[in-house]
Structure formats: structure tokens, C-alpha cells
Amino acid sequence: MAFNALVPTLEVKNMDETIAFYKTHLDFECISRESNDWAFVQKDEINIMFSSRFHKDKFPETVFTGGLYIYVDDVDVVWQILKDKVDICYPLENVEYGMREFAILDCNGYRLHFGQELEIN
Hints:
By secondary structure, the chain is α/β, with parallel strands linked by helices. It has helices spanning about 15-25, 75-80; strands at about 10, 30-35, 40-45, 45-50, 65-70, 85-95, 100-105, 110-115. It has a four-stranded mixed β-sheet with strand order 1-4-3-2, covered by helices on one side. It has a four-stranded mixed β-sheet with strand order 5-8-7-6, with helices on one face.
């Protein structure tokens, strides 16, 4: 039995705003969309689906206590592109578990981490 891919589905407040954020700031392409109910975006090997809000009365705000971690081949370049354009969770840093990384918030408040393994000499 093989697991072939993981594609997170995130509930969003505003589909147009969300797609624009991912296209403008992160260079994703919207591959498919069904009105304001659902969209599929992609950049390189990263796929994310967005859906309209379920149970808005029970959960008035989007809720996600974790983050999405995106491995990149040059985290310093990604940092330079994003650092003055988006909300930063934490700045670029080397962390004790061997990664160089930073995190941002998207337009829905979801945390996106970008990281690259440190070369150990």
C-alpha cells in the first residue's frame, strides 16, 4: 500500500483574495477553480486546495493550529523576495535541528514555513 501525495485543503474567507495572494507573492498558478467553493493551486511540486468555509456559525474564523512547511532550494532568495511584502511570523534563522528557515502568514492567517537543510561540514 503506497501513499502518493498529501494535498492540504484549507478553508478560506475570500477565494479571490487567497488566489491573488498565492499567485502574486508565492508565484503559484491556479490550476482549477469552481466558483468561490473550491480551487487548486500549484507551484513546482507543491499543491494546495482551498475551499469555502464550512460551519461558519460554529467557527467564525479560520482555524489551523499548525503550519505548512515548504522545502526550498534557496531559502535566502525566497526570504529576500518575501520579507518586505508579507506578514512575517519569524525571520530567517538557522535552527538547532539543522534547517535555515522563516515563516510568514498568508492572507487567511495560515502559517507557511520555508526551509532549507543546512550544509554540515
